[in-house]
Design brief:
The chain is of the alpha+beta class and 435 residues long. Helices cover 23% and strands 35% of the residues. It is built from eleven helices and 24 strands. It has a six-stranded antiparallel sheet. A hairpin with a 2-residue loop joins β5 and β6. α1 crosses α2. The relative contact order is 0.14.
């Protein structure tokens, strides 16, 4: 990997300004991302520890109606000039295409929602993380603590200038069968002590039963499990690529009911309760957008190619030069308290985590997962523990049937630029489990 100089935002913007001024292309756009990530774990998860830094620069040019693109991991002035030349060379070999569309309000001033950069996270090192884990945990608890800090600059020759720096911390706790996870823009917001307490509350008996329920049963998914399923839904069915390639099972359902009316899935990079970030990789200002409202599909993430196909404006969701995807998802909470929701599913199952989770038939959202931290719901509380279960099911059917959304969301994610905020999710008449 190239040696990183990790310049500040002012230096980054100065280099972009110089590159834009020297570019001979009709139009030039540059995105610069400089990020450092690390993770530290104890116990058997110690092998998951790492630390690395990386720089990514995207350059897109338009010349005589043709687009060219180049990506590089080095960002000295000479390297940026070379990236422009490479993009121009690609443009000369490309077919002419219409000019890229901008999302509505793309050039509006951005609002940075609250404090998204925490000096404590920016100073984090593996040694600091190990010390923090050792001070807060006992020998019975396994903790995975991760962190990321990054700088992003976006500029083009039409006058767009965006720059921001952000941090993220995430943690996963394993305490016997008890599991909990969370993410935050700040170390204090992560709340490691409360996260440890949540994992402790979910801990079950040492000996797990080896019997499965007879027939379909209600299932209550933890916030972590619900977020995992929403991430699958987003990646397989709501990205611009899945719509363009025809692999989304929702491709022909715009404006139609697709899920239970209790399901409202919103993307909002301005909400400080999640992992906010003020703009996408095109520099377009984030804003709240309902992808699914009351079970009705409103829109996928839309890039300029899909915008022409669907005859609707692009959305501020660009995550790569050729893909738009929602990255600040919120499953809107319901009104029922979590304790009541759990009590109403007596005799059902509680699932603390789905790991791993994979889709083996993307078009109809069939999935296979290992359900971990499984407990019986007895007397409205978490009861006897079950061993890890294999769960195969259809996500679209699950979210279309009777369900109820909890009232207390948790933010999850290990991405510097976004995450998923979800409450617990109660599903009725679930089967498909096996030992």
């Amino acid at each position: 990997m190239p040696t990183l100089t990790r310049p500040g935002l002012d230096e980054m913007m100065a280099r972009l300004e110089g590159t834009l001024a020297a570019s001979p292309a009709d139009a030039t756009e540059i995105v610069w991302i400089d990020a450092r990530r690390g993770q530290e774990s104890n116990g058997k998860r110690r092998r998951d520890s790492y630390e690395h830094a990386e720089t990514t620069v995207f350059v897109r040019v338009r010349e005589s109606g043709r687009y060219g693109f180049h990506r590089t991991e080095v960002a000295e002035p000479a390297d940026l000039a070379r990236a422009v030349r490479e993009a121009l060379a690609q443009a000369r070999l490309s077919d002419p295409v219409p000019a890229a569309l901008r999302p509505e309000g793309a050039t509006a001033p951005v609002h940075i929602p609250g404090e998204i950069h925490d000096p404590e996270i920016a100073r984090m090192t593996p040694a600091r993380a190990r010390d923090l884990i050792q001070r807060l945990t006992t020998e019975d608890e396994t903790v995975r603590l991760g962190w990321a800090e990054g700088r992003v600059a976006v500029a083009d020759n039409r006058g767009l200038r965006r720059a921001a720096e952000a941090t993220t911390a995430w943690a996963g706790i394993l305490n016997g069968t008890g599991r909990a996870a969370a993410a935050s823009r700040s170390l204090s917001g992560l709340g490691l002590s409360s996260l440890l307490a949540r994992a402790k509350e979910r801990e079950g008996p040492e000996t797990a039963e080896a019997t499965l329920p007879d027939g379909p049963v209600p299932v209550v998914l933890s916030q972590e499990s619900a977020a995992a399923l929403l991430d699958l839904l987003n990646r397989r069915a709501l990205t611009s690529t899945s719509f363009l390639h025809g692999t989304s099972c929702l491709r022909d359902s715009l404006g139609a009911p697709v899920f239970h009316p209790a399901v409202t899935l919103r993307d909002d990079g301005t909400d400080p309760r999640g992992l906010p970030f003020p703009f996408d990789l095109l520099g377009s200002a984030r804003r709240p957008i309902d992808l699914i409202a009351g079970g009705v599909l409103q829109t996928p993430a839309v890039d300029d190619r899909l915008a022409r196909q669907l005859d609707r404006p692009p959305t501020p969701h660009l995550v790569a030069p050729d893909e738009a995807a929602a990255s600040h998802l919120f499953l809107v909470p319901g009104a029922t308290a979590d304790e009541q929701l759990l009590g109403d599913r007596d005799g059902g199952l509680w699932i603390a985590a789905l790991d791993p989770l994979e889709s083996f038939n993307p078009y109809d959202l069939r999935f296979r997962a290992i359900a971990r931290g499984v407990r019986r719901i007895e007397g409205g509380r978490l009861g006897a523990a079950l061993p890890d279960l294999v769960w195969e099911d259809d996500l679209r059917t699950l979210l279309s049937g009777a369900l109820e959304v909890g009232a207390e969301p948790v933010t999850l994610g290990e991405n510097l630029f976004g995450g998923i905020t979800a409450p617990i999710l109660a599903l009725e008449r679930v089967s498909g489990f096996r030992l």
